[in-house]
Fold this protein.
Amino acid sequence: MPSLSEALQPFSAVLLTGGSSGIGKSFIQLCGNLKPELRICNLSRHAPDKKILPGAPENLNHFSCDVSRFADVARAAGEVQAYLARQAPTGRVLLVNNSGAGSFGAFADLPLDRELAMIDLNVRGLVQLTGLLLPTLLARGGAVMNIASTVAYVPAPFAATYGATKAFVLHWTLALDEELRGSAVRAIAVCPGTTATGFFTAAGAVGNVLGSRLTLTPDAVARSALRALARGRGHVVPGFWNNVYTLVAARLPKAVAARAAARVFARRRALPAAT
Ligand SMILES: NC(=O)c1ccc[n+]([C@@H]2O[C@H](COP(=O)([O-])OP(=O)(O)OC[C@H]3O[C@@H](n4cnc5c(N)ncnc54)[C@H](OP(=O)(O)O)[C@@H]3O)[C@@H](O)[C@H]2O)c1
């Protein structure tokens, strides 16, 4: 079994969305510490703090990109490819589609434009970026790592659109991995459960969501993802209890799972604004 450092050895570059915070930030720190000479490119709206890589801050590059916007993704993909050709022309490339946003509440109460922007970010932008960069990955070898969620396993009332975007990411990634079999590229879906990041605050969730003992750190999620990549797996659920949950949830009839999930997600939904 290769160590995490050995797993990164064939890679010369990591291209990642959403590295300014949370799981993406931990992923940058982990990769940069394991292999300081890696060229790391972040695509998101805010630049990551270069101080998170004290060893080689010059190898962390930011490409401003709102992943929910078609034109931004097209421009940033071109800029990243030009950067790779100059600074890391050989070696495998790891693409990590991590940027994502959620929303909690009854669909009828949530602003429709935000729901559509979430689909653009979590689904359309991920597919667009993968499509634009896949020829480079196929030519050089590499991997596509897509961050889905444990919520991908069940219909998610009160997080209906978010849950469905993650179901798309999980199924699309597993299907892509099969299509890529025999090529120099693998795809892997990472399905974290509750993770201690700013995600729930940004999504408008209420209550002490992160208070559970089952909550993982973003570093634990990043390590689990890299370990799974090293093992050549197409899919990973970080954390023992998250694995138990997904194994059970996947076997339930969908309507039963939806009813059970409604009880959980109803507690997280933001109340409709008072009128
Ligand atoms: N935290 C959890 O419990 C949990 C569980 C399962 C799955 N996930 C998934 O994990 C991934 C990372 O989330 P996180 O927990 O680390 O949350 P986070 O700390 O809120 O990070 C979200 C990242 O997404 C980026 N992002 C948001 N909107 C963007 C946009 N329009 N364009 C480009 N980038 C955008 C942000 O970067 P900028 O602000 O720089 O744009 C930020 O770095 C997401 O896909 C999320 O769905 C999280």
Remarks:
- The longest helix spans residues 112-140.
- Residues 17-18, 20-24, 44-46, 65-68, 98-102, 121, 147, 149, 192, 194-195, 197-199, 202, 218 surround NAP (CB under 6 Å).
